[in-house]
Design goal:
This protein is of the alpha/beta class. It contains 13 helices and 18 strands. Bound molecules: zinc ion (ZN).
């Protein structure tokens, strides 16, 4: 298999240690939909893998949306009459509601209350709040601290700019033998939250790094996209319609592209102690869905049906795109108490949990990449395998596992089934079926049908 050693089991620990180090480095940066915290995040990712960066100007339309103004926060605080900061952005970046407009005022507690957000049921945690599309400002704080506030007055300062600028996203592309693509999207817009967005970023970086360093070119082209949630995937899709839409005349005016996306995943929330969850694509029977079901069978992982709620699969699986993109997470969003609070910190995630997620993801990636549709070139009767060195020379015994897989592949390779379908029909691991197919291809008994978009030859033309 081309990618069989993508992240071998004995290398998963080291990859997870690197992922952990990246998470620790990124945790303090103040990220949002836009701004310098996102750029610094992309800088750090760019030290690990090659990146192509894109800056989309504020006001640029993206379907029914438009790129917002750029938000940069320098400092923010609530100080009492003695000048003591009772809420301080420098202590925790979650203290300021994301996209707060600038403010500099003196206010009583009563005036300040409508701008404060806390969690009475979790009094020691700071909530994560944003207001991207409505102009307002706010502070988030521990409910225990909120209850201690006296009547004031307080100096209230949010030293921020909200001005025309850019939205930043980045891609890392590993060219394959084919220009058909696998998309991997992970969001980069959350500030000091470890599991939600940093674990996804770090795991995506490690998978991309393994693909970049693989000794052989992958079969498919792999495209990793690091961008903010919702508006980032909308911005990317609006600039890549021709790449992802099916060719005309498919659909009611929704075609017009080259339809090069074979599979895809949205990644996030991969470091917490919960079991892995795979959420199906909108279509529910795409290559990604079939490969995930195969890889996760027999593990503790759970499969989830598609629903139009969650992360960026909402955009990739909107009806006008309907891409074969599923989502891999540990605990799904909103289902664990630390979600979107300061308790989603470095203590929630563990390198061992990252390692397990990486191993599963690497196996899924290997299956997606190696899957292909074989055609039996000697379909009338069984070809003689013994004379080609593929079958035991002593008759009478039951076939060994490899010979068994050879027979299944030859029998099913009528050009209508891919290797994954054959593995399912034969109830064999994909890797065994793929190994048999590779041997049969080598022996000239099989050829691959689906290589519709071969890469352009590299180098100067003659
Ligand atoms: Zn989130």
């Amino acid at each position: 298999m081309l990618l069989d050693a993508l992240i071998p089991d004995d290398a998963a620990g080291a990859a997870a240690t690197d992922a952990w180090a990246l998470i620790v480095a990124l945790y303090p940066l103040c990220r949002s939909l836009t701004g310098d915290g996102v750029r610094q995040t992309l800088d750090r990712i760019g030290e690990r893998i090659p990146l192509i960066r894109t800056e989309v100007p504020s006001g640029t339309p993206a379907f029914d949306w438009e790129i917002p103004r750029e938000w940069n926060l320098r400092d923010a605080w609530i100080a009492d009459a003695d000048g003591r900061r009772v809420v301080d952005f420098r202590a925790h970046s979650l203290h300021v509601m994301g996209y707060s407009v600038p403010v500099r005022r003196t206010m009583t507690l009563d005036e300040l209350q409508p701008h404060l957000h806390s969690l009475p049921d979790q009094p020691d945690w700071i909530p994560y709040r944003t207001s991207y599309y409505r102009e307002q400002w706010g502070f988030c704080l521990r409910h225990r601290d909120r209850e201690r506030l006296g009547p004031g007055p307080y100096e209230v300062v949010i030293d921020a700019t909200l001005a025309p600028g850019h939205l930043s996203y980045a891609e890392s592309v590993i060219p394959g033998q084919s220009t058909d693509e696998v998309l991997v999207y992970t969001h980069t817009c959350h500030p000091a939250l470890a599991n939600d967005n940093l674990s996804g970023i770090a795991v995506a970086v490690e998978l991309a790094r393994a693909l970049h360093q693989a000794p052989r070119k992958p079969r498919l082209t792999w495209r990793f996209i690091f961008g903010p949630g919702t508006i980032g995937s909308l911005a990317w899709l609006s600039r890549n319609e021709a790449r992802v839409l099916p060719p005309p005349p498919a659909g009611e005016g929704w075609g017009g592209g080259t339809g090069r996306v074979s599979a895809g995943l949205v990644l996030g929330l991969l470091g917490d102690p919960g079991v892995l969850h795979y959420k199906h694509s909108r279509r529910g029977d795409t290559l990604t869905d079939r490969a995930a079901a195969h890889v996760l069978r027999g593990t503790e992982a759970k499969l989830l049906d598609f629903e139009p709620y969650g992360y960026d699969e909402r955009q990739f699986c909107s009806p006008g795109f309907d891409l074969p993109m599923g989502r891999l997470t540990r605990s799904p969003n909103s289902t664990y108490p630390e979600y979107h609070t300061s308790a989603d910190d470095l203590s929630l995630i563990r390198p061992a949990q990252l390692a397990k997620a990486l191993q599963t993801l690497a196996r899924l990636a290997s299956v997606l990449d190696a899957n292909r549709t074989p055609l039996n070139l000697s379909p009338k009767g069984e070809p003689r395998l013994g004379k080609r060195g593929l079958y035991g020379s002593v008759g009478g015994g039951a076939p060994c596992a490899f010979e068994h897989a050879l027979l299944w592949v030859l029998n099913q390779a009528d050009g209508t089934r891919d290797l994954l379908a054959i593995a399912e029909r034969a109830r064999l691991p994909f890797e065994q079926v793929e190994q048999a197919a590779a041997a049969l291809e080598h022996a000239g008994l099989l050829r691959t049908l689906d290589a519709p978009h071969e890469s352009e030859p590299k180098g100067p033309s003659p």
